[in-house]
Every structure is written in structure tokens, then in C-alpha cells.
Amino acid sequence: MEGSFEEFVTAWGGRLLRTAVLLTGDRAEAEDLLQDVLERLYPRWRTVQDPPAYVRTAMSRAVTDRWRWRGRRPRQVPLADHHDVAVGDGTAHRAQREDLLAHLRRLPPRQRAVIVLRYYEDWSEERIAEELDVSRGTVKSQASKGLARLRELVGEAQERREGEMSR
């Protein structure tokens, strides 16, 4: 890639951090994850052909490795409340994003990872299966279960809002 490492971090840092937050569920852990991966990228900077892809791949592998090496399920850590504090500007888009992030936090880590990589990063099922070291069928089932759960959560939230408005 042309340009300096510093230019890359400046240009891509925000997007990569958002991906890391979605993968880990915690901003502080996401910052640590991204920093670790960027530290590994720096010595290889001149040889890496696609740095954004390298970083995203390394982050997804690192998250998966953490699950495996701990020998247990990762602890459920909600995304930090300060990550996306609602701004009183009244836009529906912002409110929908807040709701979606809240619902995404409630998914199990593997379902969250599959949903983020598939629909946020637009990865193929094959690539996700390879990166998470699971079968393509597992990716499909986790995506299906995750989307079904998100639909349930959205429906529940909508029913709550309608109930509050009718009072």
C-alpha cells in the first residue's frame, strides 16, 4: 500500500475501531485488540498488500483465539454506554442505530461476530468460516439464529414503545 503507516492509521483507525468494538463488545478491549494488531502490522508494513483486510482478519482471528485459549465462553461484556451516547438532534437514524447496537450487545459472542462480519464487513460465509475456523454450516446457522434473535428483540422493543405511547 502506498503511503505511510501513520497515514493508514489516521485514515482507517476509526472504521477499524468500530469493527473491533462490534467484535469484542467493549470499547477498552477493542482499543487493546486494535493496538495489538497494529503493532504486529507495523514491522510488515511494506510487505502487506491490503492493510485494512489484514487488520480485520487479524482482529477476527485474535477474538476467536481468545475464546479458544481461555477454554471457556468469553465473558459477556456489554458495549460501553459511552460508545454511542444519544445526541438530542431528533434524527430517526441515530435512534435506530442505538437500538440496533443495544440489541446486538445481547447476542452471544459467536453470533455477534458472524453478524458483524457478514453484514457490517460484508464478508462471505466462506471467509467467515475460514477466519473463525468453523464450518460454513455453522456460519449459516449462527447468522440465522442471530438474525432471528435480533428480530425478536426489535419486535419486543417496538411493543414496549407502543405500550408506553398508549399510556
Summarize the structure in words:
The protein is mainly α and 167 residues long. It has helices at 5-24, 27-41, 51-69, 92-105, 109-120, 125-132, 136-165. The chain is globular and about 60 Å long.
- Approximate helicity band: over 70%
Major sheet, described briefly? none
Q: List low-pLDDT spans.
A: none
Percent of residues in beta strands: under 5%
- In oligomeric terms, what are we looking at? single chain
Our measurement of the CA-to-CA distance between the termini, rounded to an integer number of angstroms, reads 58 Å
β-strand number: 0
Order of helices and strands: HHHHHHH
Shape: globular
Nearest-angstrom radius of gyration? 17 Å
Helix count from the secondary structure assignment: 7
| SSE-based structural type | mainly alpha
Q: Average pLDDT across residues?
A: 85
List keywords for this structure.
mainly alpha; 71% helix; 0% strand
Layout: helices, strands, pairs:
Elements lengths: L4 H20 L2 H15 L9 H19 L22 H14 L3 H12 L4 H8 L3 H30 L2
Helix pairs in contact: 1-2, 1-3, 1-5, 2-3, 4-7, 5-7, 6-7
Short description:
This protein has 167 residues and is an all-alpha fold. The chain is 71% helix and 0% strand.
